[in-house]
């Protein structure tokens, strides 16, 4: 039998605290601003939408935040997740590099999203809010919150972007199987939805509209909270359970990482994977933490670091972030989870401070890497995660050229078993790559709010 | 933190031999017969279709068969699989019973089928046959063989029942992502397919037709083998890796099982799970091994133990098996993998010898149990596996009534993430239950071959 393939931790090795990257930053990130007053947002501004425990996690500078036992009890249904040596991929690439991947697709809904859905549902239960609302695009986040809500007996109402509601029936059904209600957005159940439908009866919906509906539904119901699946500090905090496990697993494997890669859309997957390595990065600057984004939505690589809205309608607080402009509508690449104009402020701050770097990839080259991964490692990756695979393949091929035996670790944030129509399109040669002329990017950022 | 939830083995605990149930049987099963001569089938009869190593495994009475290192190297991409304490399900049922499930859905294609696909591909590679052919219905087996073929660089050609080819695009795409060719059956690429199309241009296909096509394609190509995903002795042998892991995991958990349940269609899932417990069953007759089958296809509970063909066209050897008659066409229940008129001869022999028992369930009660499982344990089960869940729930509720704290263990043979259209139908209240009058069963078995 050849070398160990999977590095598995036991439930006892599950981290019992979330890792907070803030104390390690060279400079604290600029605070979110109220869109009306342009003053920093305070806990009271957020209280109608979020339970207080999450608001406190949003602002804490404690180096660690304890994970409640009631959260760990759910997380350990599938955690710790495996770290796998991709030895077949190495062989296929004929590279001297060592490649490892962390596999988050073993969660009940097939991605990393439940890592934050579970604590969000938990704190709502604790603070006596029996109902949660959210939006979802392709459905990864909606399924995760529906799963977590079922665990705590919460009512869960999801507004799913109408075009995805039709195109992704699998995830729609999964949410309902968990007991959630799922409406196509724009819906007739909110003022925001009705207003859109009045103006555009055939609207295919958008994340911006669905966010407005879910926020409105929570705001008018004192028993309800709104939940968000990425971008915010507390969401990234919850995801650090991933990177903390990787720290232990790389020790088990007896290797020191040279390059760590994760795909990046809103930033929670990458942040959760990479932040626990920031202290190491500060000590050992040659360690590279690489955020892999789509060339069709090149937020860090080509966006501007500025205050901007989180949504299209301009209802959210202003966040200091890399942005392509809140009016930027990314082309319909198949990595739907990466189609976001902005970035988690914490990821952006790390990029500005030189702690992480970013690279962008076209979707065809990502699917090509994904198919190679499928044939060699057996798992069909989510189109989002394929960006990290592409990044890893590029680095492994550089090692082949230079003869260096670097250790490359990437996060396989989810599987693609609900995304097979995207693979159909790729295998049929139907996918288009996108490249923006500089003017288009400039144009999209022209209307950034003046702060 | 409450009790341990998952019982995980390491790669070192992976069984290094398959368990052969034959030496433990009270009487050896009757041999397969040649359909022409009615004489027992010999190795030479099978050589055109199967590599010799598999033919030898089909007839061996050795108590264990070594698993080659090259097979273990692939299996440990996902094995050992977890044994999970279903503590949330126990709470929801308010039962004193302890419920555990073995989870085979962590494999690359989401079911137990790769456990035999990998060794089948391995032996073909070893014996210099670079091409494998097979049929598939919903696609579980086709995906598994495609995955295994990719690992060994074999060409893989799958004939997929035409109606499923249209209805299950996800698994069709997954097979192609592994590099397999997938044709809708009946196809124009075989005599068998062309004959059906000539007579019935609109034929939706059937497993019987697809088997004929895959067998023909292998028979006319000396470089090709035909592969089967269930029924045969060597297939069940390969699946015993599941039950052997469960033996160790129950020891880890410090429990002695009272009732073990698996769903049963062709028999490989149940056999692989239950056979390693047959020696224990012989020593301790109160241990119950329960095969859970659909009431719509009640092979063991209502079929006859007799020699019959494995396929509709009568091309296969005659097998001594529980059968509803090879002309029996089960109604279109959503557990497609359980719609088979016959049974693995080894499972049938165990049933005849009182070593296992069988129970049948209607699909609506199975989906009801599956939804309860989804909400409590987070995993959407395959419709097939939901029969084992139903069986476990029934036993747990009996314990609630009697106050007994029995240990119930079932095999969750796969996840249902490719089967969400079935859940849609269930949630919409559209599923029909089937009950056969005795005459219908008698009628179906009227034409059993005279042996």
Q: What characterizes the major β-sheet of chain A?
A: 7 strands, mixed
Examine the secondary-structure arrangement and name the CATH architecture of the domain at 6-13 and 78-110 and 240-445 in chain A. Answer: 3-Layer(aba) Sandwich
Assembly state: homodimer
* CATH-assigned fold name of the domain at 6-13 and 78-110 and 240-445 in chain A: Rossmann fold
Percent of residues in helices of chain A comes to 40-55%
Question: What is the β-strand count of chain A?
Answer: 15
Give the distance, in angstroms, between the N- and C-terminal Cα atoms of chain A.
61 Å
Q: β content of chain A, as a range? A: 15-25%
* Coarse structural class of chain A: alpha/beta
Query: What radius of gyration of chain A results from the CA coordinates?
Result: 21 Å
**What is the arithmetic mean of pLDDT of chain A?**
94
Using CB atoms under 8 Å apart, which protein chain pair has the greatest interface? A-B, 46 and 46 residues
Describe this structure in words.
Chain A is of the alpha/beta class and 451 residues long. Chain A has a domain of 247 residues: Rossmann fold (3-Layer(aba) Sandwich), CATH 3.40.50. In chain A, 40% of the residues lie in helices and 16% in strands. In chain A, the strands form four sheets. Chain A has a seven-stranded mixed beta sheet, with helices on both faces. A four-stranded parallel beta sheet of chain A has the order 8-7-6-9, sandwiched between helices. In chain A, α9 packs antiparallel against α10. The longest helix of chain A has 21 residues. Chain A is globular. The N and C termini of chain A lie far apart (61 Å). At the A-B interface, α3, α6, α8, α16 and α18 of A face α3, α6, α8, α16 and α18 of B.
